[in-house]
């Protein structure tokens, strides 16, 4: 039997962004009608959860409506920017407090799971280049997850 994985991203969920919630409703309706084996949210779950933490709470409620297994990684709207991208006046850097808020509300910021015969690994790309201890932890984790391959 084939394995189905659905990838969604850039939902930009926030109470202040009602059109995103309407679009998310359509996604959830589709997933409910024909549930895949796994749903992967590939970042930017919130509109600006990095600076408005209440958006993480709002997004968590909407993510909980996804039927079946859901894994996710954050995007820059959820955590801020790493130091590898442009750093203009509106640069919001990733820092430990933002990462902790994300983890306590949304859950882990990286994952390794199986779906059928597939091994799917998702890393928090916002950590790369930050120099945070969590970046080194993630590199070690990635090495251990990918070592068998």
Task: Explain what you see.
This protein has helices at 18-33, 54-63, 76-79, 96-105, 133-146, and strands at residues 5-8, 38-41, 70-72, 111-115, 118-122. It has 5 helices and 5 strands, in the order E-H-E-H-E-H-H-E-E-H.
| Arrangement of strands in the largest sheet | 1-2-3
* Terminus-to-terminus distance: 24 Å
SSE series:
EHEHEHHEEH
Number of helices: 5
Question: Keywords, please?
Answer:
3-stranded parallel β-sheet, single chain, 149 residues, alpha/beta, 36% helix, flat, two-stranded antiparallel sheet
Give a summary of the structure in a few sentences:
The protein is of the alpha/beta class and 149 residues long.
Give the topology.
Layout: E1 5-8, H1 18-33, E2 38-41, H2 54-63, E3 70-72, H3 76-79, H4 96-105, E4 111-115, E5 118-122, H5 133-146
Parallel strand pairs: 1-2, 2-3
Antiparallel strand pairs: 4-5
């Amino acid at each position: 039997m084939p394995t189905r994985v659905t990838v969604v991203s850039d939902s930009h969920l926030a109470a202040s962004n009602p059109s995103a919630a309407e679009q998310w409703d359509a996604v959830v309706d589709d997933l409910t009608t024909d549930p895949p084996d796994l749903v992967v949210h590939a970042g930017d779950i919130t509109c600006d959860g990095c600076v408005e933490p209440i958006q993480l709470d709002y997004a968590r409620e909407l993510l909980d409506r996804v039927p079946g297994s859901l894994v996710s990684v954050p995007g820059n709207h959820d955590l801020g920017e790493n130091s590898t991208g442009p750093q203009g006046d509106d640069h919001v850097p990733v820092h430990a407090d933002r990462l902790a808020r994300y983890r306590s509300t949304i859950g882990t910021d990286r994952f390794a799971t199986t779906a059928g015969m597939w091994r799917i690994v998702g890393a928090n790309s916002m950590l790369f280049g930050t120099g945070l201890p969590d970046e080194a932890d993630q590199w070690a984790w990635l090495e251990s997850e990918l070592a068998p391959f």
